[in-house]
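Model: Ready when you are.
Researcher: Fold this.
Model:
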Amino acid sequence: MSTEVRVPTLPESVSDATVLTWHKKPGEAIARDENLVDLETDKVVLEVPSPVAGVVADLKVEEGAVVTADELLAVVEAGAAAPGPTTEPPTSPEKVADSAAEAPPVAAAVADDDGDQVLTPAVRRLVKEMDIDPRKIKGTGKNGRILKSDVMAFLDQQSSTDDPDLRAAVAPTNAMDARQEKRVPMTRLRARIAERLLEAQQNAAILTTFNEVNLKAAMDLRARHKDAFEKAHDVRLGFMSFFVKAAVEALKKFPVVNASVDGNDIVYHNFFDIGVAVGSPRGLVVPILRNVDQMSFAQVEDTIRSFGQKAKEGSLSYEELSGGTFTISNGGVFGSMLSTPILNPPQSAILGMHNIVDRPVVENGEIVIRPVMYLALSYDHRIIDGREAVQFLVTIKQCMEDPARMLLGI
């Protein structure tokens, strides 16, 4: 019996998706709930599983095609056995033209002794997006299966001087190779990021105010309790939970910073949904911590840890990426000393954290060395005055330099 596989209902505000990767060809067997195709939207990659076990009879759209909800993607013959030879899936004219120049298939290099593919669909998508040859990655999973952690470890180890292919790209061996170009289309996520950043610059009056924070008290508090904290909650005590909770205290004092502009109206929010910018292989994403004022430090740390792992795996859901009233971006993890973060529309402010550096500080008339971080608050001057922005940042500074204020609500 033939079973149709259609585009699932897309999340609210998403009108279409792009066919990113087919994981089966016509004639290949597929198990029930096994991923058949990846669909890329503006924020996430959706996996479309097969509703039945059987054989893929036909693929109705090619990779790169734009599809809408309920559009027919493929046909699966339920319960059928896979025949010997198989036909190729739909291929775009560009891929046909380039087929002669493609490298030999790597399936044999990524298959175990039974002929099963070592690459899972999620890993296959990741190595494709990062343009990695999976034969260079040593799998640590069962039967040599390549895990997502193996791909991330491989990326961490690579540099422009370590990879011969990258060295060849930046140091051509002859004059003919000296001026090469490679044109790569933006992913939908990257295109959406570009669109939103441009929208923010065009539609908001963005200003940035700066301050510095002495983190010695927070670091001392963390050092005293981090072991007990981790033992009690099974999660490390980092600095993000301090800054997230400090931001909530500041937002309570200055609610306009937690507001947004809608036409000629200012929309005030009586809840605190904090976005935390996270880097992923596909680009910057901002998952949302909801109702942070009701969360403990441990819950904040655990949720941020979960978001970081999901971002690496590309498994963040639309719900986790939607909404938010305020954003925190930590450029310090990449070594940034100072920056001017850009708004995440329709939000009206964003806090930029930076690296922690030992700097000379005057205390009680004496120069001492303290761990200092520069902070930046970018805000929409249409609704937030400079006085409010400065005092907001001062409140965060006070909370971080005396963490007991957050516990006492002062």
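Researcher: Now this one.
Model:
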Amino acid sequence: MSALKPYALKPTDPDWPASLAERMGSNAPTALHMIGPVALLVGRRTALFCSAAAPGDAILRAHDIARQLRDEGVTVISGFHSPIERDCLRILLRGSQPIVICPARSLEGMRVSPECRPALEAGRLLFLSPFAHFPRRVTKESALRRNEVVAALADELVVAYASPGGAMEALLAEARAWAVPCSLLVGADRSAS
């Protein structure tokens, strides 16, 4: 598959998501780089997250929620980076609802996988990144930044599992401070108090 050329959306564009400035303030990205229809940013978006290492019951609950979101036609936004998130993406791609994939890297030179190509061609898939040219590979810092942007773009967060004391727990706390509704499917939620 050949690489597609990303385009940039700026805060002055009418399609710019207001939630970024409202929630992130001066820490909001200066541009969003995209491949696919920007119209997928209109309407409600549910962010789907899961820590990289998760227990079996989290896997089952994540698969169930992915099927539910797919069947209800909910727009799902995620990095789809952890193993469980990738499983959920495969489930979502079998539906007809919008999907927003946010890699923790630049979109330049990115190739669209054969499993994602039909959804992109159907106009129901958007690749979105806060990174213009770098990094070209995912880093811990870029993943944290991507997750923060995804949470700021979402109307609600569904977290299949958050490792105790990990970055996902911190993200849940940040999203709650923004008054974004959050659901933790499996595990103790120490950030709720």
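Researcher: Key takeaway?
Model: The domain at 27-188 is CATH 3.40.50.450 (Rossmann fold).
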